[in-house]
Design a protein that fits this description.
The complex is a heterodimer. By secondary structure, chain A is α/β, with parallel strands linked by helices. Chain A is built from six helices and five strands; from the N terminus they run E-H-E-H-E-H-H-E-H-E-H. In chain A, strands 2-1-4-5 form a four-stranded parallel beta sheet, sandwiched between helices. In chain A, helix 4 (66-81) packs parallel to helix 5 (98-113). By secondary structure, chain B is an alpha+beta fold. Chain B is built from six helices and five strands; from the N terminus they run E-E-H-E-E-H-E-H-H-H-H. A four-stranded antiparallel beta sheet of chain B has the order 3-4-2-5, covered by helices on one side. The termini of chain B are far apart. Classes of the chains: A alpha/beta, B alpha+beta. Chains A and B meet through helix 1, helix 2, strand 3 and helix 6 of A and strand 1, strand 2, strand 5, helix 4 and helix 5 of B. Strand 3 of chain A pairs antiparallel with strand 1 (3-4) of chain B.
Amino acid sequence: MAKVFIYPATSLILSDMVTRFGHKPLGSAIAIRERVQTPGLESPPLQITPEEPKKGLAWAAVEVPAGVRGRMSLYGPMVEECDAAIIINNADLAFGCMGCARTNELVKFLLRQKKMPRLELEYPKNEAEGVQFVAAIKKFLTEIGGKK
Amino acid sequence: MTEYKPAYPGTVTRYVVVESYTVTPADVAIRAYEVAKGVMIKENCFGLIVMGKEEDVDRVIAEVRKMDPTHIFVKDRGFPPGDARRCRATLGGARPGFHGIEFEMGILPYISNGLEKTENLDLSAVPAPAQAAPERRLDVYTLKKMIDAQEP
C-alpha cells in the first residue's frame, strides 16, 4: 500500500479512487485531523497556531507570506512522506485566495521536483473522458502496487 | 488563551457521498445503523458522516459500499460530525467544504460510468486522457496594447 498525495488535496473523487484501489490518500483532512485531535492551546477554527508558519520555513523562504508558510506546514510533511502523486490540473475546485493559489503552485512544484511516480490529468467533461480518466488512475495505481 | 482538549481523540471521520439512482442517503443510513456497533453516524443531504475507531469505520463503510459500489464515494474529514467550528447549524450558510463536494458531485456520474465500464476492461486498450494545452500567459506586448486601448 503506497501513500498517494492527491491534488486538489480536498478532492472526493481522488480520495475515493486511491482508497478503492488499495492505497492511502494523503490530503488536507489528514493534516487537519492531526491538529484537531492534538491537545494544546485553543486556536479555532483549524487549530493552526503561530508555530505553524515557523514549521513552514522548511519549504518556503522567510520572506514568503505567513499564510503560505502556515499552509505549507500542513502539506509539506505529506509531500515528503508520499510515494506517488495524482494531480488534477486546472481544477476549479482548487480556487482560493492568493495564499491558497501560491501554496498550490508551491505544492505542485515540490511534487514535480520529487522523483516518484506522478499522474497528471484534468477533470472529465463527458462520459468518454470519464472512462479514460478512471482507466488512467486505475492503471497508475495498479502499477504502483494496488488492487487489480 | 484557553486550554484545548480534543473531543474525540484517536478517532477517524469519513464522508460517505451517495450519487445513486437506486439508493438514497436514508437507505444507506439505515444499513449503516444496522452494522454501526459504537460508530457515530450522522445522515445529511448527500450521504453520511461516519466517526469512530478506524477499523470500525472501515467496516461500516465496506458494508454500505456493497449497496451500490460504483455510486457510493468516500473521503476523509478532519473534524468530527457536528463540530461547532465547521457545522452549518452554528455557522450559518453552507459548510466551507461543501462547495468542493458540490462541484465534484457534478462529475461523479462520469466517474461511476467509468468505474462500471473499466471493471472488466483491458486498460491498455483505453487511450490516455488528452492533456490540456499549456496555459497561455499574457505577454507584455499584448498587455501594452490593452493599456493603450484604454479610454483616457
